[in-house]
């Protein structure tokens, strides 16, 4: 059931926002209707909008709903206030920075969720319920009891009930990876990883003087026989795996392959670092490797890819108390603690259910964007239909670096395969991230521009001389 009201006055144009009974928050429906009217030309720059009280009366909603709708429309650069003269449709904003960033893996704005409101509500609850002095002082590394309990709740979909004492709260997954590298390996030691892997692993290894050796992978992930051979040959300190919606290939390792790798790691007495940032975004992912070899695997889950990078909070599951102590000692050498305020906000969101709403919204938006990418990129699309990125194999006439430079000249940022390479294998592909462009229309424009570029053969690119 829906209602339709027509707003008309001699001072403003006819405009008919429609509010659906089950269409989500009404203020967002009104803001969306405004955006649609501006897009289709029903409302034009300079048109005056109805006064908030009158629009509230016409739509039979409270004034707060209209105020929030107008605020959201201003945030989208749709409206501008002109003091006592009222509120008007804004002229199109000139984008001085025209780069369409398809290079950074960040979650998209959650579909149907008012992120600003959840942020304000969460911070308000944190400040009301917590001694502000505690939020602004030093804390022992590893997180408070409340933070670790929130971590146990966050990890429950993967593991079921957990002892919160087995969880360490870290300032992001990169800090956790670096600390595990320090705790588990010696200078000059070997780390095994897939040929295409998370760039942060390579960066940390370079800083700490560790050696990464690539182990062959196929369409299901790291090849078991190759892992066993590499373990016996190189005696690695750890194996790094990102088995769900792998960054960058977007492969989700099937359960059978996970069992095989866990069995080999146990036989060869080598630890696995399971970096699993996308598990909660995946459609029916297999159980983590850490459920198959609990004592052999260190499991990392970050909030940066499901909620927002600004929290800088990750949870690490380490079951053995002595190994947790080693990990904490390594972590304290460069990162004393997660920031108390953002850790408290993460805990608040997890415990009050806001995190679940945000994840659902991010998951929905990511799937909408994958459908868009599949439609625009047609036969070139090779994504999994969920997660934050697409691994795009290139036509033979393009190389990844060529394509990245050509895309940059077209105002598009993408990431070439070389950025992820841990070994000598050459892969003719790029990673496209679907979440970093907030506006879906701009994302569509970027993907269309990229599709047209892929269809052309490379030209010679030369810098202008000025």
UniProtKB/TrEMBL annotation:
Listed SMART domains: HTH_GNTR
An example molecular function term from Gene Ontology annotations: DNA-binding transcription factor activity
Record keywords, A-Z: Aminotransferase, DNA-binding, Pyridoxal phosphate, Transcription, Transcription regulation, Transferase
InterPro entries: Aminotransferase_I/II_large, HTH_trans_reg/aminotransferase, PyrdxlP-dep_Trfase, PyrdxlP-dep_Trfase_major, Tscrpt_reg_HTH_GntR, WH-like_DNA-bd_sf, WH_DNA-bd_sf
Stretches assigned to the HTH gntR-type domain: 24-92
One Pfam family named in its UniProt record: Aminotran_1_2
Superkingdom of this protein's organism: Bacteria
Family in the record: In the C-terminal section; belongs to the class-I pyridoxal-phosphate-dependent aminotransferase family.
Protein name, UniProt field: DNA-binding transcriptional regulator, MocR family, contains an aminotransferase domain
Originating organism: Duganella sacchari
Lineage: Bacteria, Pseudomonadati, Pseudomonadota, Betaproteobacteria, Burkholderiales
